[in-house]
Design a protein that fits this description.
Helix content: 55-70%
Length: about 300
């Protein structure tokens, strides 16, 4: 377990011990003051003379004073208790969030390390093979094609990391140019069909659909959605990319026949580093950035992104 996580958990345990001590001290304070108030009232009543003509009036004043002090202690105690509990809940949520972020970052670092090493290792082996062995033209072409695919994968990963950081930090300058969305999506589908020649990638794209936006960001968003469809659906099942225009509103759909996402997780998958708990998806490679980045890109374009169940 990383040192940071251990340290946070120790702080977490110490905090709850201190919180329990403070609550117990508050209860002891209330009991002590209430006991003292009762004793003082009893002493004052015992000091009264029963033959005093003002006995009833003084007795009533003592009881009224005791009642006021009891109400004061209850009000002060309840106020302190509420403040302590509010602070405890705030700290508890902050610590839990820190632990969750730490866990997600640890998982992300493991995933990103694997995602970076794999294309580098494959490319290195392919190039060394070409360098050290006399290969036929077709063999060289296959190895070079494989190396190019791994390089594109590495480039996509680096773009996701860079753009995610720039958008979060406000460092990315968004351009709003008129772009042909039909051509952009069509080119994305062609690129994926070339990269994954064993997959059936269909398209139903309405022609000449123009929008204002950042073509680079939109291309990343579409590529991430296509990447997810390729990762999380069976190789035998087709993938469909569609674009339609209705009342000046463009709708893009990336449809696959994967295992699906539980309703409880449909919003969570757009969270940074989050990966669904579905075992079928856990086994697939990924960093938890794809849908997060696609969602952020949609937000910058005043567009909604949703997940729907495939009825078929």
């Amino acid at each position: 377990m990383p040192i940071k996580v251990k340290k946070i958990k120790r702080i977490y345990i110490v905090y709850w011990i201190l919180l329990a001590y403070v609550v117990v001290a508050l209860v002891w304070w209330f009991i002590s003051l209430s006991t003292q108030n009762h004793q003082m009232s009893t002493f004052k009543i015992a000091d009264l003379h029963t033959n005093d003509i003002l006995y009833s009036e003084k007795y009533a004043k003592i009881l009224e004073y005791k009642k006021r002090k009891t109400a004061q202690y209850i009000l002060e105690g309840a106020t302190f208790l509420l403040l302590i509990l509010a602070g405890a809940i705030f700290v508890f949520r902050a610590i839990r969030k820190e632990l969750r972020i730490t866990s997600e970052q640890r998982g992300f670092m493991m995933a990103i390390t694997h995602e970076l090493k794999t294309p580098i290792a494959v490319s290195k082996i392919n190039l060394e093979t070409i360098q050290k062995h006399k290969l036929t033209e077709s063999q060289q072409e296959r190895l070079l094609s494989n190396t190019l695919a791994e390089t594109n994968r590495l480039d996509t990963l680096c773009n996701n990391l860079l753009i995610s950081s720039q958008i979060e930090g406000g460092g990315y300058k968004l351009s709003k140019d008129e772009i042909n969305l039909s051509q952009l999506i069509d080119q994305c589908v062609i690129d994926f069909a070339n990269r994954f020649q064993q997959r059936v990638i269909l398209k139903n794209i309405e022609s000449e659909v123009y929008i204002f936006g950042d073509s680079f960001l939109l291309q990343i968003a579409i590529n991430n959605l296509l990447e997810n469809a390729v990762k999380y659906s069976s190789k035998e099942k087709p993938i469909m990319a569609s674009l339609s225009l209705f009342q000046k509103c463009a709708t893009v759909k990336i449809i696959d026949e994967g295992p699906g996402i539980a309703d409880a997780e449909k919003k969570m998958v757009f969270t940074k580093f989050y990966r669904t708990g579905n075992e079928a998806t856990k086994k697939a490679k990924g960093t938890g950035l794809g849908l997060y980045l696609s969602n952020r890109i949609c937000q910058t374009h005043d567009t909604n992104i949703t997940i729907e169940n495939n009825p078929n």
